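Issue 218. Parser rejects a valid record. Input:
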Amino acid sequence: MAGVNPIGLDIGSSSVRAVEVRRAKDDFTLTNFGQVPLPPGTVQAGILAEPVALTSALKQLWAACKFTTKKVMLGVTNPQLVVREMSVSNLPAKEMRKSLPFQVRDMLPLAVERSLLDFRPLEEPGTDPTVRGLLIAIPKDAVMELVQAVEKAGLHVVNVDLASFALLRAASRLDAQVEAIVDIGAEVTSVVVHADGEPLIVRTVPRGGVEITESIATRLGMPPAEAEALKCRFGLHGDGRPDTATAAADAVRPLISELRSSFTYLASGERQKQVTRVSLCGGSALMPGLAEHVQRQLGVSVMYADNAGRLRDTRKARQRGFDSFLPSAAVSIGLTLGAAA
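Output the parser choked on:
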């Protein structure tokens, strides 16, 4: 690529985001970033519903931001995404790709012929007949429709990566703790639990900020726009009126239940790992009082992720509004870090 790193492109439910970095040795310097909103319904729970609207938004984004390349690293997710730890035959990479559909055919809820499959080793392949790693399966048609819509905008998709793995690259803290990174978007929440960078659980939960707003609106009998304003300004603290804090707590309960069940599964499963820290990111994670509420409900330390922790020299970007872009930028940042690596 003649020294040009692909742009990290994240397609969310409410907007499209892109990040460009320059790599020098082991440093990653932010050089450009931007986002544009998507019309409601363009992407629904991670599934592209209106390709023309997405293509138009991407053209607008590139025209506005003037990125130096049209090559992109695309992040994908899907409600039917499967990421499962397993052992497969220890084969050279080329043979592994060919044999994977036959090795995993009976282990997936998806039909292998309609899936894109990949395998990410979690250990160095040795002389053993098998190797332990993560099997990744995602519906093929959904990914191809996304790629086609992106390329109709004049962009070139050089690679596709799981949004969850990009999230891990950008937002993880590498230490002795078992950390859950929770990226709460408008309609989808991505959950990645890892131990020192090794993924333990990867989930896509079809819940997010829109559901929370709708729940508050229904509970308090107010229009969604008013409920959204209440959520963003006062959140779980409430505005002093009876029932507003209770309505907010009820609205986030289903998402917290999803997190609790994932953590319980991990603690009781084969690995028996206990989550000790939750790192929040995503635009909907900015709801006032959410971090404290999650900490009380789950009994673990909760903080906000440092999405830009692996980027050097973001001062100029901050003058252009990077701080407001950053909470939702973990995936786009992580994608371009992976592309540059």
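Fixed in the parser; the record now loads. The chain has three domains: 7-79+140-172+306-340, 82-138, 205-302.
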